[in-house]
Amino acid sequence: MTTYVEISSKTIENHLHDYTDGSMPISMNKATESVSVTQENLLDRPRSLLWRLFHGINYFIASLCFVGASTMFLDRLRQAGPSTAAAAGWLYTIGSFLFLLSDLVDWWYSRLGCFCYKKYEEVYEKENADLFRYEQGTILGQITRAEIGFNFFLSACGSVLYLAGSILFIPCFENYVVIGLCLVISASSVVVAAQSWKVYRAGCTSLTDRLDHRFHFVNLFNDISCLLMDIFSGLGGAFFIVGTNFFLPQYYTNSPFGNNRPAGLCLCGSVFFTLSGVVVNYRHYYLVKPRDQDSHTVQHNYYQCNFRSY
Q: What is the DSSP letter of 134?
């Protein structure tokens, strides 16, 4: 999953001091003294080199595991024996687990307004007072504040479903393979929904008027790499929906075409996931500003794209 975080950094730097040498804690004034980020907590260090390595490597290796697993289902390899099916099941399982790790750190980075953000709450509310149309204690107010966190949580749910389905592809669970296929189809549908939501929210984010929440097609091009990440990941999920359906008993035929059609579609989906991973790492190491590389401040710029379209 990847998208815009509704907290501006325009004045947050007046409250927080960057430490490019990796040191903490963050110096705060009285209004924001509840914010404290410790060096020992990996997930509280967004955009540090360690965070980017953990997120980017896991995501990219996961996508390569999906490529390898999908290849195992091609007819020529499938006919080689049960060992290829076992390899595919394990590769999908490992890949899904790594995707889940990436999604969890991505969600934790984007959780403001959604979950466990008490130490950032005062700054978050102050910096976005003009954006929140409903009181904090109301249901609509909570939904508005938690929208971004929910979006990324949805991506993590997709990875959980992928992991559950992939485990059932391992030969020792062969009696449950149909359930596994249904879980993978559900996971892919969740991924497509999450990525579509991210693209829509990007279209509703204006660089010139932060109060304009209407969808404008031109807004999608404010951050091309973010758009590519979400589109590639969404296409990956879409190909897996179609490809996995052809593995279901009512559509599957044990023939060269019957094996290659679903395997080829899943392979295309895996390639799109890999392309998304390439863009993710491109952002991590090429587009990141030098001053942000090891800064441990609350870097949730309203106009700044998050990671993983994931």
A: S
Query: Residue 188 in contact with residue 237, Cβ under 8 Å?
Result: yes
Sign of CA dihedral 257, 262, 268, 271: negative
Distance CA 252, CA 181 (A): 12
Name the amino acid, one letter, at 144. Answer: T
Q: Spell out the residues 6+ positions from residue 278 whose beta carbon is closer than 8 angstroms to its own.
A: 60
| CA 182 – CA 244 distance, rounded (Å) | 8
User: What pLDDT digit, counting tens, does each position of 2-43 carry?
Assistant: 443 343 444 333 333 333 333 333 333 333 333 444 433 333
Is the whole model's pTM more than 0.85, yes or no? no
Q: Please tell me the distance from the alpha carbon of residue 183 to that of residue 169, in angstroms, as a whole number.
A: 11
Distance, CA of 253 to CA of 259 (rounded, Å): 7
CA distances from 59 to 27, 64, 102, 263, 277 (A): 33, 9, 6, 21, 6
> What are the backbone angles phi and psi of residue 198, rounded to the nearest 5°?
-65, -40
Each residue's pLDDT tens digit, 40-53:
333 334 567 888 99
CA-CA distance, 111 to 70, in Å (whole number)?
33
3 state DSSP class of 305: strand
Contacts of 110 (CB under 8 A, 6+ apart): 3, 5, 148, 149, 151, 152, 300, 306
On whether the CB atoms of residues 262 and 244 are closer than 8 A, the answer is yes
Position of tokens 């990996």? Answer: 42
N-term to C-term CA, the chain: 2
